[in-house]
Amino acid sequence: MSEANECLFCKIIAGEIPSNTVFEDDSTIAFSDIHPKAKVHVLIVPKKHYATVAELAQRDPSELSHMVGIAKSIADKEFHGAYRLIFNTGEDAGQSVFHVHAHVLTGEVLAE
User: Is 35 tagged catalytic?
Assistant: First the structure.
């Protein structure tokens, strides 16, 4: 079985695992993080499997730009446009699912 077939986020995208979806289009899905670190904590995930943000930037920079636009839209709706956008890249940086995803933290004033 391929890495993408075993991927947690690929299973969410395929509808095999339920999620609280807050945005979806043809290329991207966004859903609530199950372990939120802020009042609003959303993961933005491209539907096509890329392991890291560096791989995504190299292979599909327009999707990366699209993800940033989705983050802004979520923050505009949830908290007057202020947000933190985080990509963890590599296990030692906290990446636990190796399908690129952006963490959008918003909904409240965030400490440094």
Answer: no
Nearest CA-CA partner of 32 in 101, 110, 79, 91: 101
Residues 6+ apart with CB under 8 A from 110: 38, 82, 84
Task: State percent of the chain over pLDDT 90.
Answer: 93
pLDDT digits (tens, 9 = 90+) for 10-26: 999 999 999 999 999 99
Catalytic residue among 49, 99, 101, 103: 101
- What is the token pair recorded at 87? 């990509």
Looking at residues 65-85, what average pLDDT do you find?
Answer: 96
Q: Measure Cα distances from 33 to 2, 38, 62 in Å.
A: 25, 10, 24
Q: Give a three-class secondary structure readout of the chain.
A: CCHHHHCHHHHHHCCCCCCCEEEECCCEEEEECCCCCCCEEEEEEECCCCCCHHHHHHHCHHHHHHHHHHHHHHHHHHCCCCCEEECCCCHHHCCCCCCCCEEEEECCCCCC
